[in-house]
Every structure is written in C-alpha cells, then in structure tokens.
Amino acid sequence: MERTSSWFGWRRRRRKAREGKGAGEEDRHKVVVDGSEIRELVEDREAFGMLVDSKFRQLDADGDGRLSVRELRPAVADIGAALGLPAEGASPNTDYICSEVVSELTHGTSQSEVRVSKAEFQEALSDILLGMAAGLKRDPLVILRMDGEDLRDFVASVRYEPSAAAIFSQVSSEGVPLRQCLLAALQQLTVDHGVPPVSDAWVVKNIVEPALLQLPADQLEQPASRDGFFLQLKKLLGAVAERLQEQPVIVAHTENTYDGSGVKRLLANKFELDKLLDSVWKGVQAEHKSKATKECVITALDKMADAASLPHYGAVKQVIASPDGIEPLHASSPAAVDAVVDEAIKTATADGRKLVGEAEFKKLLTDTLGAVMRQLNGNPVFVYTNTVVHEPLSGASALFSSPPPMTSSPSE
C-alpha cells in the first residue's frame, strides 16, 4: 500500500505547489475541491487496484471473499478523507451518488442480505468516486478556513451598519431578551460575513458560548434596545473573531444558482436528449412502466439531473435570499427546487392515473423539464450549503499548510 499512500501525498503537494504560484493572500483561506484528484486516482489503475485490494482485505473480516453492501459507505468515507474531502453531508449532490449506487446494488432488498465480490466492490467504488468527481467538477466544493479575519473585516466595513439594522428589524420584538436577539443575529450571518454555521453544536460550544461570556450577563437578560443591540453585537462578533483566531473552523461550502439554463441546453440538443430519454426509459422498472406516477417521474428526472444541471430531488436544503452579501437575510426553504419540480409535474399532468407508453412517458419527461426551465428562468433559485468539517479536521486543516519542498517526483 506504500505506492497508494505516496500517490495521495504527491498529488496534493503537486496541486498545492501549482496553485501556490501567484496566489493571492486570500487563497490561503480556501481550497477548491473540483474532483480532479478523485478522477486521477480512479484512472491510475495500479494505484486504484492496490487501494481496492487493501480496503477489501480490511473489510473482509471473515475472509470469505465477499462484503456486505453496507460496508461500501465507510470505504468511500475513508478514501474521501485521504483525498481531503469532508464527511458525508457536505455536498448533497455527491452524497446522492453513493446512495444511488448502493440502491442499484441492493435492488430494493436489505443491504445486509446482499454480498458483493471484490470485482463488484471495485466497480461500485469506481462508479461512486467518478460520480462524485463529476458532481464536484460541476459544483466545486470550497473548503474554507475561518480564522476571524473575514469577520473583523466585515465588522469594520461599510456593510456592517446596514446589515445590523436589517437583522435587528427581523429578530427584535417587544420584551425579547438581548441574548435571544444576539443568538438570532448569529443565525442570520453566514460564511460570507466570516461567521461559521452556528447550527453546528461544536461551533456553539467552542466559539459562541465562550464569546457570550465576555458580554455583561445582566444586560443579556434585559429586553433588547436598538442601541444596546448594535453595541453588544459588535462586541460579540469581536469575541467570536478572537475565538476563531485561537480555534479556526474548517467549513465545506457549496453554492449554485439554478436558473434553467442547463435544462434549456439539454432540450435544445435533440440528439443528446433522445439518447438520455432512451436510457432513462430502459432503466424504469417494469412494474412502473405502465403508469407515470409522481415517484416514477421524479426517479427518471433524477437520472437526467446532471445533464440538465439540476440538483437531485431532495438534495437542496438551504436557500439564501440575498446572495450579494449586503443584507444577510435568508429564507428557510428546505425544498425550494423540489417545489419547482413538483409544480412542473402537476403542469405536465403526471398524476399516475392513466396508462402511458414509451412515447408518452418520454413526452411527459420533456414537458416536465420544459416547465422546470420556465419556472427557474422566471425565478432563479440560489442554493448554498455550509458544513463544519469535524472529521478529518486535522486532514482538512493540513490543506492550508505550506507544501513541503519538492526535490523529486515519482513518474506518472
């Protein structure tokens, strides 16, 4: 396994050395993960084969030469960690790939009942990793190192006063304690302002709560006034910045704007569209082919999502209403893009109550995509996710350290 381990280290050093040339000061606070290292790993047959052998032996405790499907996920997580990827949940579209491959392996049966050979294990890992790589190429994952510098810049900037005023108008009401208003204000601020996700328990315990202790306890329990809120919020953010300087937080960030342009490109390419529709139709389970139920249509659309530059159904969890960063107001809409898809399916009359053939099913999918395109074109959806990286925290932090001198490189 020596060659595979050195492969990881060499690739990272080489990429960092390449990115370090002419990089600005800001680049030291973020690393863009675009899937290139994952593709290089899978395409390096010798390294990938050795990695599969090692993982298979490690997981095959009883030595019978077969593994349960449920053991795929930890194997993928370990490989992702070695490549510097954060834990599952940081990138919804790439997480979907793993679930999809596992679903295809189990064919609806219990994961504990399905046993896979090493060849099947290697093929599944390849499919998952290449799917992740494709997703990251389309929607790169940005690993941010939050050390308080951006937060100090925000507080000192002209953006702070109008942002604080907008937040106060949202979080304040008669008789509400100052502590509650300040905590609500932190919920309104994002990584764009230098604040890590305060929905994370570790951030609350190690960053927010110690920072609150630096404020006057008696005032925190009093009803919030506008002036008091402005003064104490600035102090709180300064204390948060100090905590971040002592304990930087690594955050995996993704963002995308879905405006229907990807759907438009797909619909305009008749050859590509027809080929994709043929593939989707062949993949529809026999018992579902006679009826276009909503579930069946959603499953089919998910298989077309990458080509149409759409998120997979259920993947979108957060929507920000003001991406320009001037006002930190964001609307909680767990299924913003899903709602567009649901409405498009209704528009295309996919009620599942009538029998459909291949041509009608393909027309239904095309009409649904057209409805999605029109809705997103009129009302684009900006989506972001921010996930605190806990494991492997040390590995993620190492991405921001200076690369070691490169005196020699192994041949490719």
Automatic annotation (TrEMBL):
Domain EF-hand: 56-82
SUPFAM superfamilies (UniProt xref): EF-hand (SSF47473)
Keywords of this entry: Calcium
InterPro entries named in the record: EF-hand-dom_pair, EF_Hand_1_Ca_BS, EF_hand_dom
Record keyword Hydrolase present: no
PROSITE patterns the record matches: EF_HAND_1 (PS00018), EF_HAND_2 (PS50222)
One of the record's GO molecular function terms: calcium ion binding
Protein name (database record): EF-hand domain-containing protein
